[in-house]
């Protein structure tokens, strides 16, 4: 059984789904759309409660590392291995798709890493926004519809990877 909680953030409303073992999914929801169908507050001490607290602290600028467990069930072995390798890239740092391919030890080519990032069920907690193309930002499948790159840019600015825009 899964629990859901919504969190309003500077990059839109995110919906966190968690089970007994950890966070299963983070997604974006347009404000005003269908009801979440859950209780108002997560069960104190649950993985969902911990995730909402840690994500709130991250967006407030007071958290740089996440300790909430994540569930990566249903992913291929190579996808899981790439995502676990990405967890080694700390706050305020970035890697290219090619560097992450090498770091993961999977033998996947750099081009395939983008697809793995798109399959990441827990963006922000596993920071796929820190993976950049060799010649620019690359893509980002998170964020509200049509705002993926703006969302990625905000996260990179928030962590100091990119300088803030003046206007």
TrEMBL record:
Example of a GO biological process term: methylation
Occurrences of domain Methylated-DNA-[protein]-cysteine S-methyltransferase DNA binding (ranges): 79-161
InterPro entries to which the protein is assigned, alphabetical: MethylDNA_cys_MeTrfase_DNA-bd, MethylDNA_cys_MeTrfase_DNAb, MethylG_MeTrfase_N, MGMT_N_sf, WH-like_DNA-bd_sf
Residues in coiled coil: none
SUPFAM superfamilies in the cross-refs: Methylated DNA-protein cysteine methyltransferase domain, Methylated DNA-protein cysteine methyltransferase, C-terminal domain
Tagged with keyword Cytoplasm: no
UniProt-recorded Gene Ontology molecular function terms: methylated-DNA-[protein]-cysteine S-methyltransferase activity
EC number: 2.1.1.63
Domain Methylguanine DNA methyltransferase ribonuclease-like intervals: 7-72
Keywords: DNA damage, Methyltransferase, Transferase
Keyword DNA damage: yes
Name of the featured protein: Putative methylated-DNA--protein-cysteine methyltransferase
Organism for this UniProt entry: Microlunatus phosphovorus (strain ATCC 700054 / DSM 10555 / JCM 9379 / NBRC 101784 / NCIMB 13414 / VKM Ac-1990 / NM-1)
């Amino acid at each position: 059984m899964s629990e859901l909680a919504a969190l309003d953030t500077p990059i839109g409303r995110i919906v966190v789904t968690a089970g007994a073992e950890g966070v299963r999914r983070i997604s974006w929801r347009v404000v005003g759309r269908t009801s979440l169908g859950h209780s108002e507050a997560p069960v104190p001490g649950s993985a969902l409660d911990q995730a909402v607290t840690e994500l709130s602290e991250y967006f407030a600028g007071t958290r740089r590392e996440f300790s909430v467990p994540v569930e990566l069930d249903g992913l291929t072995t190579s996808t899981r291995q790439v995502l676990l390798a990405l967890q080694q890239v700390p706050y305020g740092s970035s890697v290219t798709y090619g560097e992450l391919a090498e770091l993961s030890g999977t033998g996947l080519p750099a081009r395939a890493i983008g697809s793995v990032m798109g399959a990441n069920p827990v963006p922000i907690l596993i920071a796929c926004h820190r993976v950049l193309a060799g010649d620019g930002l690359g893509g980002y499948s998170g964020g509200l519809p049509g705002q993926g790159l703006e969302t990625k840019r905000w996260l990179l600015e928030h962590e100091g990877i990119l300088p803030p825009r003046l206007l």
